[in-house]
Design a protein that fits this description.
Helix content of chain B: 25-40%
Mean pLDDT of chain B: 95
Shape of chain A: globular
Helix content of chain A: 25-40%
Distance between the termini of chain B: 33 Å
Strand order of the largest sheet of chain A: 1-2-3-4-5-7-9
Strand order of the largest sheet of chain B: 1-4-5-3-2
Order of helices and strands of chain B: EEEEHEH
Largest sheet of chain A: 7 strands, mixed
Low-confidence stretches of chain B: none
Order of helices and strands of chain A: HHEEEHEHEEHEEHHHEHHH
Low-confidence stretches of chain A: none
Oligomer: heterodimer
Radius of gyration of chain A: 19 Å
Largest sheet of chain B: 5 strands, mixed
């Protein structure tokens, strides 16, 4: 196949919106949206601050099946307000995860897939957003004891702030090269540490530290996939079939702390330093 | 931010509904649902102030010389150019035709 034919046949996942991503992952004809945009469950806070709201508050909740397995997908729309989570969007995700755990207690093995494109909490909704994210965290921890919760960070927004903790709590995490994952976003770090330490506009530098490839090489995520709908779907399906992991990454804090304790902070940290530090046996 | 309302004469309501676009930079979200027979009503929430005339002209030009279906259209605009608005509306009209 020529290069141009390969390009024409490739279906990018990153370029899809949240709803299209959920549809692309689910088995044909099984997509069923909960609290769809026509119900207009919107943020009551944005309008009061002169910000145009979106009819689904930037979060799509869909039920369906993936290779026959019952799943609920929560997809965040990164193009709307940077994928930020406010009261409504956050409650939609937390509620979906809580209902999935309830399903499991009633004998229905619902799994969850989180499509994370988010800068974290929506600053306009402050504490309400933070509270919603905390609810998402505890809902993930509740559900993952029954069935896997698979997180996908495809890009191009990445996953930051409180939602990076949600990503860390997932049973399995999948990223692409476009993805970034980190607690603080690049601009926040630059503001706090200074541009000499961390230049948020130096894209190769940023990706070398927080990009998908680096996160995979440092064992902070489980899968590294190309930006291709078929590949990502296959890998998500494999992860869902793996079942609950013997030990969750977030249960291995001791291991990561031991590795961090070996870090020499006298010299500037390079991406290779981090790889060497974190490349223990893969869990 | 501004909230604007427009009304145009229309024919019969269609059966389908459609959602196109996203409230992202330079884009807009359009929700199209069946309206009351004879009336096409549009509600626009836009981040761009002072743009009422521009919206009025855009819609008037689009529906000029035809009777559009009776619809209730909700627009959430995040600074889309008239070209993008028109493309999104046409995309939405095509999608209600599919249902």
């Amino acid at each position: 196949m020529t290069d141009s034919a390969a390009l024409l046949n490739k279906h990018s996942f990153v370029e899809l919106g949240a709803r299209q991503r959920a549809k692309a992952l689910l088995d044909d004809g099984t997509f069923r949206e909960l609290l769809d945009p026509f119900q207009r469950i919107m943020s009551p806070w944005l309008l009061r601050q002169g910000v145009v709201p979106q009819s689904d508050d930037g979060v799509v909740i869909a039920k369906g099946s993936l290779d026959g397995l019952p799943v609920v997908i929560a997809a965040i729309e990164g193009a709307f307000q940077g994928g930020s989570l406010g009261e409504v969007g956050g409650a939609k995700i937390a509620g979906a995860l809580e209902l999935a755990a309830e399903d499991n207690r009633n004998g229905i093995p619902t799994r969850a897939v989180l499509l994370l494109e988010t800068g974290g909490v929506r600053l306009q909704e402050a504490n309400l957003g933070l509270a919603a994210i905390a609810e998402i965290h505890s809902a993930i921890v509740d559900l993952r004891q029954y069935q896997p919760v698979v997180g996908v960070v495809a890009g191009s927004v990445g996953c930051f702030g409180g939602m990076s903790i949600a990503a860390g709590l997932c049973s399995y995490l999948l990223v692409t090269q476009e993805a970034r994952l980190g607690l603080n976003g690049p601009q926040v770090i630059e503001q706090e540490a200074g541009i000499d330490e961390y230049d948020s506009r130096d894209r190769p530098f940023i990706w070398s530290l927080t990009g998908g490839e680096q996160r995979f090489a440092t064992a902070l995520v489980d899968r590294y996939a190309a930006d291709d709908v078929t590949q990502i779907r296959q890998q998500v399906s494999q992860l869902l079939h793996l079942g609950v992991p013997a030990q969750h990454r977030s249960g291995q804090a001791e291991l990561f702390l031991q590795r961090l304790a070996r870090l020499d902070t006298d010299v500037q940290i390079e991406p290779t330093t981090v790889r060497q530090l974190y490349q223990g046996e893969r869990p | 931010m501004e909230t604007l309302s427009f009304e145009f004469p229309a024919g019969q309501p269609p059966r389908g509904r459609a959602l196109v676009g996203c409230v992202g930079s330079g884009d807009l979200e359009v929700l199209i649902e069946p309206g009351l027979a004879g009336k096409l009503s549009i509600r626009v929430q836009t981040s761009v102030n002072g743009s009422e005339q521009r919206w009025q002209h855009l819609f008037a030009r689009m529906f000029d010389g035809q009777t559009p279906p009776a619809l209730s259209i909700d627009i959430h605009d995040f600074g889309a150019t008239p070209g993008v608005v028109r493309l999104r509306l046409e995309q939405g009209f095509e999608e209600i035709g599919h249902d």
